[in-house]
Design a protein that fits this description.
The complex is a heterodimer of chains A (472) and B (278).
Chain A lengths: L19 H4 L12 H8 L20 H9 L3 H11 L3 H7 L6 H4 L11 H11 L5 H6 L13 E4 L3 H11 L5 E4 L8 H4 L8 H13 L3 E3 L10 H6 L4 E4 L5 E2 L12 E3 H10 L17 E5 L3 H12 L4 E6 L10 H10 L2 E4 L1 E8 L5 E14 L5 E14 L2 E4 L3 E2 L2 H5 L26 E3 L2 H4 L4 H19 L2
Helix pairs in contact in A: 2-3, 2-7, 3-4, 3-7, 4-7, 5-7, 9-18, 13-14, 14-15
Chain B lengths: L4 E8 L3 E7 L1 H6 L5 E5 L7 E4 L2 E3 L4 E7 L3 H8 L8 E6 L10 E7 L2 H14 L3 E8 L8 H7 L2 E6 L6 E2 L2 H11 L3 E7 L2 H11 L6 E4 L15 E4 L2 E4 L6 E3 L5 H8 L3 H15 L1
Parallel strand pairs in B: 8-9, 8-12, 9-10, 10-11, 12-13
Antiparallel strand pairs in B: 1-2, 2-6, 3-4, 3-7, 5-6, 13-16, 14-15
The chains are: A alpha/beta (472), B alpha/beta (278).
Bound molecules: flavin-adenine dinucleotide (FAD) (2 copies), iron/sulfur cluster and FE2/S2 (inorganic) cluster (FES).
Chain lengths: 472, 278
């Protein structure tokens, strides 16, 4: 029942999803995606504003109004083309972007009612028009020829920032080689974000689309170890993009952190996602199977770890966070899904110590009770300890999702690279260029942990500059 | 083809083998003390193995492994000419090697192979290298001929006395340290209890003691924290800060506990593999 008439006042079309009781026991994708009718109905709510505010909220400047316009008319290929023009990974972004603070957060309809479900529409278009034919779409050829084969560009790391650089340049005929330290490509999209939120197949499709465009993918190459920036310069690369992410896990330096059963979210998620430990012993990587789990933190990473633990059979999973629900940085949808699935929230608590048994295994955690004080620099209320008030939580596993910093491997091997006082790479905000000529950087290794789309925005900026310098 | 097994040699049948693997990019960069992480098949686990030797000209690296669980058992099924799907490296900080005088290198079990690469480095830097190697029995000794080529002193201990001193490497080490006050460094690589025992022996002598920690790893590039260990009360990542650390400062108990975290799953894995492969 496609309803193409503009009806902005009607509520947004809900997204079908697996029931919470069912999905909390499997790794299948939680949200099921719009049908054709649903997508057309939702697209039909768009006002096609003269001055669309939505686009200004998008870090890669997707022409949102135009793609929704084409979609509303049922022209999915054209809608896809518009999105793909500026966004190399639409099926990914439609699933993981914090739309509520970006495009949807700026949509005029949000002022009175519900904004257009831009993310869901983007996902629908990308999924319908499979990414496999992206190259054909843009160039008319199934397998792209790379006309500028005297040029070459290298990317280090294969996260969204590098994939964007590669997509942009390959579409302009420049051969790009991506060097990745791990055995799979996609960065956090494959080793961090779980399948129930972003199926690996989706990432694989986008990568294979880049592959058909002529991008070369080299696994098991560690930048700074297997190959250095200087090696690449010596090998005649015209430009180099560093997109190695911010993968160094932070710990809290509280007693008991090295007990057996204490994990960084990175280790936990890498075991489960990259190592497919949820399918042990079919896959060889082992995973812990605790009963009571505490996850420390309130971002997307914490939600992913908590929901993963539930799916692996934990009876109780607690998120311990030092502020309240309202301050949590996780995407609204993830918080909502986590609650529905039965994750318990221990708000206004901060871990003091992790306590072990005689075998060095975690048996409980001591928490400091907090209250909210005055707003701090970030504008969020500062959590302050309530003197003398602590609580005890019986857990046999603790996952720390308290942030990550710059991984030092490549940086230490590249002494000419200027860093910020936080240890991230200094890059020109306009071009992405680092202190080394023709060496660019972007994504989390420049900004610190951020979002997929901001990493892509940085990749796009650098790619534009590289293309301009190469004259393509 | 990359990562092809060029040579396979069984050192102790069914237990320890040596592989020479085609990996030119790694061979070019590897130094003593570095390791690689490899995956033996598509559903495999990432396992770290020390680079026991390199030949940058031929573009090969050598590894020596002990069959302990599923992944190493699968590695043992590969033949010359087969390819290993993923080999990543060189990882870890290279051994700190400088001309310092007399260096005693203590190796136990499969660790002798890793020790061999480091001893060779010390020899090339102009040090007088004393090698002390130990195993349960004569048949389980490795690399003695290779070590003999450049170590003016090669001292051997076997638990059962079938070769050399009957007893532990630490007995010989203690004797040697009592005789010679000018030892500049002791390097120990082998099973954790052996490295701990070596550190305990050298402590009263105040000799610098380096051990190589084999903590459980996942990525090997400092992104997961699985390999963390306590050294001098601080948390360090064995894959990027190590694997070599000051043996007098390492919390060996913690290391032992962390090494046994997946015992049950590892057993399941190996049993299933044995069932399928006889
Ligand atoms: C669990 C989790 C959930 C998240 N959820 C969301 C979400 O819902 N929405 C959202 O927008 N963002 C989310 N994020 C953040 C987002 O994933 C990151 O901001 C984004 O992936 C950063 O992209 P990047 O290109 O900078 O690098 P990354 O994705 O971090 O990729 C870097 C790649 O470089 C490789 N690498 C590192 N060092 C080297 C080296 N020396 N040589 C070669 N390769 C190297 C790494 O192995 C990795 O593959 C999440 C992050 C995590 C961890
Ligand atoms: C830096 C480093 C260098 C090493 N060099 C060598 C070497 O040269 N030769 C050699 O034989 N062995 C070496 N090891 C040990 C080797 O990695 C393990 O024997 C191997 O991972 C066991 O895998 P598995 O599946 O066969 O056995 P499993 O059944 O999985 O495990 C058996 C035991 O091996 C250890 N182990 C398991 N998984 C890992 C892992 N991911 N990382 C480290 N240890 C693990 C644990 O103590 C475990 O109890 C090294 C380890 C490290 C950290
Ligand atoms: S702001 Fe909202 S209503 Fe206006 S064009 Fe963008 S999506 Fe449509
Ligand atoms: S193995 Fe992951 S940080 Fe060392």
């Amino acid at each position: 029942m496609a309803d193409n008439k503009k009806n902005p006042k009607s509520p947004r079309v809900p997204m079908p999803e697996q029931p919470a009781e069912e999905r909390s026991h499997n790794f299948n994708e939680v949200t099921l995606g719009y049908t054709y009718e649903m997508a057309l109905e939702e697209a039909g709510r768009c006002l096609q504003c003269k001055k669309p505010l939505c686009q200004s909220g998008c870090p890669v400047e997707i022409d949102i109004k135009s793609f929704i316009g084409h979609l509303a008319e049922g022209d999915i290929p054209e809608a896809y083309k518009v999105i793909k023009n500026t966004n190399a990974l639409p099926a990914v972004c439609g699933r993981v972007c914090p739309q509520e603070v970006q495009c949807e957060g700026s949509c005029i309809l949000g002022k009175k009612g519900e904004p257009i479900a831009i993310g869901r529409l983007e996902r629908f278009v990308a999924d319908t028009f499979t990414a496999d034919s992206a190259c054909e779409m843009l160039t008319g050829d199934v397998a792209c020829s790379l006309p500028n084969d005297h040029l070459k560009v290298a990317c280090i790391g294969s996260g969204p920032s590098s994939l964007t650089v590669a997509g942009y340049l390959a579409a302009r005929g420049v051969p790009v080689t991506i060097f990745e330290a791990l055995h799979e490509f996609g960065g956090v999209l494959v080793y961090g974000i779980p399948e129930f939120r972003l199926p690996k197949e989706i990432v694989a499709k986008e990568i294979s689309a880049l592959w058909t465009k002529g991008v070369k993918f080299m696994p098991n190459w560690v930048g700074g170890r297997t190959i250095t920036i200087q090696d690449l310069i010596d090998d005649g690369y015209d430009a180099i993009f560093i997109g190695v992410g911010a993968g160094l896990p932070w710990f809290l330096n509280i007693p008991g952190e090295n007990l057996v059963g204490v994990y960084s979210a990175n280790e936990y998620l890498t075991r489960i996602n990259l190592g497919r430990a949820y399918d042990f012993p079919n896959y060889d990587t082992p995973a812990p199977h605790p009963r009571n789990v505490a996850v420390i933190g309130g971002g997307n990473v914490a939600m992913d770890a908590a929901r993963t633990a539930l799916r692996l059979g934990a009876e109780n999973v607690y998120i311990t966070y030092r502020r309240t629900m309202g301050e949590m940085p996780a995407r609204a949808e993830e918080l909502h899904h986590a609650e529905e699935e039965g994750v318990k929230f221990q708000l206004l608590t901060s871990p003091m110590s992790i306590n072990g048994d005689e075998n060095g295994r975690v048996k409980s955690m001591t928490l400091q009770v907090m209250e909210l004080g005055e707003p701090d620099d970030s504008g969020r209320c500062r959590p302050v300890p309530v003197k003398g008030e602590t609580s005890e939580l019986d857990v046999d596993m603790v996952i720390l999702a308290v942030g990550t910093g710059a991984n030092p491997i490549l940086l230490e091997a590249t002494p000419d690279l200027d860093l910020t006082k936080w240890g991230y790479i200094k890059a020109d905000p306009e071009t992405g260029e680092t202190s080394i000529k023709n060496v660019f950087a972007g994504g989390d290794i420049v900004s610190g942990s951020a979002t997929v789309i901001s990493a892509m925005g940085a990749g796009r900026k650098a790619a534009k500059e590289i293309a301009a310098r190469l004259g393509v | 083809m990359e990562n092809k097994i060029v040579v396979k040699k069984s050192l102790i049948p069914g237990q320890t083998s040596m592989l020479v693997i085609d990996a030119p990019q790694i061979a070019r960069k590897a130094k003593p003390g570095n390791f690689v992480i490899l995956r033996v098949h598509d559903k495999g686990e990432r396992i770290p193995l020390t680079i026991a030797d390199t030949d940058p000209e031929k573009g090969t690296i050598t590894i020596v492994y002990l069959v302990v669980g599923k992944s190493s058992a699968m590695l043992e099924t590969l033949k010359e000419g087969d390819c290993i799907p993923d080999v990543c490296g060189p990882l870890g900080k290279p051994t700190h090697i400088e001309k310092s005088g007399t260096v005693i290198c203590v190796g136990g079990g499969t660790g002798i192979a890793a020790m061999h690469h480091i001893a060779k480095g010390h020899h090339q830097a102009g040090n007088h290298v004393v090698a002390i190697v130990g195993a349960r029995s004569k048949d389980l000794l490795l690399f003695c001929d290779e070590l003999g080529c450049f170590c003016p002193e090669l001292l051997i201990a076997t638990d059962d006395g079938t070769h050399g001193h009957k007893g532990f490497v630490t007995d010989i080490l203690k004797e040697r340290l009592e005789k010679d006050k000018d030892v500049s460094e002791v390097v120990a690589i082998g099973p954790v209890p052996m490295m701990e025992a070596v550190a305990n022996v050298t402590r009263p002598f105040g000799v610098k003691t380096t051990v190589s920690l084999n903590s459980i790893m996942v990525d090997g590039i400092g992104m997961c924290g699985a390999c963390r260990c306590s050294v001098g009360g601080e948390t360090r990542f064995a894959c990027v800060d190590g694997p070599e650390f000051d043996g007098h400062k390492v919390d060996f108990n913690e290391l032992k506990m962390r090494l046994s975290q997946y015992k049950d799953q590892e057993r399941t894995s190996l049993e299933l593999f044995r069932k399928d492969h006889g």
